[in-house]
Amino acid sequence: MLSPELGHYALALACILAVAQGILPLIGAQRRDRRVMMLAPGLAVGQLLALLTAFLCLVNAAVTDDFSVQNIAANSAVTKPLLYKITGVWGNHEGSILLWALILGICGAAVAAFGRNLPSALRARVIAVLGAVAAGFELFCLTTSDPFARVWPAPMDGQGMNPLLQDPGLAFHPPILYTGYVGFAVPFAFAIAALIEGRVDAAWGRWVRPWAVAAWCFLTCGIALGSWWSYYVLGWGGYWFWDPVENASLIPWLTGTALIHSAIVVEKRESLKIWTVLLAIATFSFSLSGTFLVRSGILNSVHAFANDPARGIFILGLLALVIGGSLALFAYRAPTLTAGGLFAPISREGALVLNNILLCSLCAVVLTGTMYPPFMSLLFDRTISVGKPFFDATTIPLAIPLFIFMGFGPMLPWKRAQLWPVLQRLWIAALLAGVAFAVFTFGMSGILPILCSALAVWVIASSVLDLTERVRLFRMPLSGSFQRARMLPRSIFGTAIAHAGVGVTVLGLAAMSQAQHKIVEVPVGTTEHLAGYDWTLTNVTQEPGPNYSALVATLEVRHNGKIVTIMHPSKRSFNSQNQTTTEVSIHTNLLADLYGVLGDKHGTDAAPTYVLRLHYNPLAPWMWLGALIMAIGGVLSLSDRRMRVGAPRRAKPTPNTVTAT
């Protein structure tokens, strides 16, 4: 029986196995004892099974309405739909930490299953590092965040879930986002293992890159899903509010993107090795820091889970051990790593170095803007706000050169390149960007949106041209180009698609700056005009829901007298939580969104008026479509046989290479 007690014992067992996983393989690798090193995969799988048992016990408690479990009583109710009873397991602090630990256990088991081609000592060390990190989170669960804690007397019904979280988008947002966060623990473990071993080479770069790409794909989808949720649930008409918790996910995404590109240089040229190791440490450190900031209550946000100093202190201690320990090891061992190959500034390596500089500069800007207000409050007791104007003014100037050089980088050869031949191949992309700039000048306002839109066209066109150049399209028979395309590695297609996805997202972002909106208070039967459309409020009715009552409006939208769509925005009242939420109605044709929100009811019952928020958002779907295209590009790169099958054989250490002692 999947009882809470069984879940608690399974969690304790997982913690014990994680401690063993974090210690025994390291001892085996140090002593070159193959029998001890071979314990690592079994311990990782055993820990995963124990965590899965604990998680299923918590899910069972939620589904069966076991309100004697404090976590279920505080976050569920009898009337809550079954889907949200299940997904609500991770919609709270305790459940989200257990989910984090479960995903970390999956990562350890995945390395055990798919890392059979790794050298035994390296695999043992990687699994050991993952076990040590998992032990910290599982101990956190058992001490300050026990998801199986009982409450007595058990209430007849629970308090219910935050109504904002009762949505499919946010229900699946945390697992995807956490998989991205936790997935970067694997490159982190490879970095720590490399520092212990004292060796980073092309084979190491090949092994790290697929794990980094997989984590990046999940993090990209998680961020996009959270942005989409903000857009269609909060009813503010926007998609990104530079919320501190939103920024906490963007920061590791930026360094993770830099890590992927840097690992390519390690694999191809054995350069940037020390920098790549540092990026792997930094990316996972930022993931952990975001967890601390949200759960300690330092960052106030609609996304925040808890404000508990005891939990914050525990995570702060865990951060000090993981981040401080890894940086101390880096400072001690990095100088002993062998230097990489030389390259000219104008080369593929040079372009990737510039990519890293710009991405890390963006990360520094976002980190500063996010952390400056809480530190000012903590140190000087001053309350300040850093919002959209600051981030727009500081990130856009850094993003513009990044977009420019995205077009050049993939076409530059390794080691040394001539810029003029590349420019000759990109003249069509430059021409299209110039035409786009001229066209957007007549249809958009503001130089920055126009420039960013033109650069988005440049990025998309250069990505397409890169592929056409590689297959020699229009320069040889079509059958020959098709044959060359079949022979190209999938990672090349993946890179071009991911870059094009960036361009699509940037087009959506720039177009959204031209959005039109109107807030009105009108009685039923009134027609408003916005962006060439006639919006008529034809009816407002009261309708019951499974655990709420809803006030539902009917909006007829016409263009040139013809009905385009009928929209039904609503307001939902949840009596158990005494909370009201908005349900946005959106009609899209992929080129623009018609976006309607029902606000408060005023006046008397005989002559009521209703507040309406109406939006016309051009190219809004492109923001999330671009993120999906980016993730597809990453998945296509992962399907490359060079990443899926085997790994390069490591060369014997040179006399200058430090080996483990």
Question: Would you write up a description of this structure?
Answer:
The chain is of the alpha+beta class and 661 residues long. It has three domains: 1-161, no CATH class; 167-412, no CATH class; 516-621, Tick-borne Encephalitis virus Glycoprotein, domain 1, CATH 2.60.98. The chain contains 22 helices and ten strands. The chain has helices spanning 4-31, 34-37, 39-63, 70-75, 82-87, 93-114, 120-143, 168-183, 185-197, 202-233, 244-269, 273-296, 309-333, 348-380, 388-408, 419-425, 427-443, 447-471, 478-487, 490-512, 620-638, 641-644, and strands spanning 516-522, 527-530, 533-544, 549-559, 562-567, 570-574, 579-583, 585-588, 592-603, 608-618. The strands form two sheets. Strands 2, 3, 4, 5, 6 and 7 form a six-stranded antiparallel beta sheet that branches. Helix 8 packs antiparallel against helix 10 and helix 15 (388-408) runs parallel beside helix 18 (447-471). The chain starts with a helix and ends in a 17-residue tail after the last helix.
Topology of this protein?
Blueprint: H1 4-31, H2 34-37, H3 39-63, H4 70-75, H5 82-87, H6 93-114, H7 120-143, H8 168-183, H9 185-197, H10 202-233, H11 244-269, H12 273-296, H13 309-333, H14 348-380, H15 388-408, H16 419-425, H17 427-443, H18 447-471, H19 478-487, H20 490-512, E1 516-522, E2 527-530, E3 533-544, E4 549-559, E5 562-567, E6 570-574, E7 579-583, E8 585-588, E9 592-603, E10 608-618, H21 620-638, H22 641-644
Antiparallel strand pairs: 1-10, 2-3, 3-4, 4-5, 4-6, 6-7, 8-9, 9-10
Helix pairs in contact: 1-3, 1-7, 3-6, 3-7, 6-7, 6-8, 7-9, 7-13, 8-10, 9-10, 9-12, 10-11, 10-21, 11-12, 11-14, 12-13, 14-15, 15-18, 17-18, 18-20, 20-21
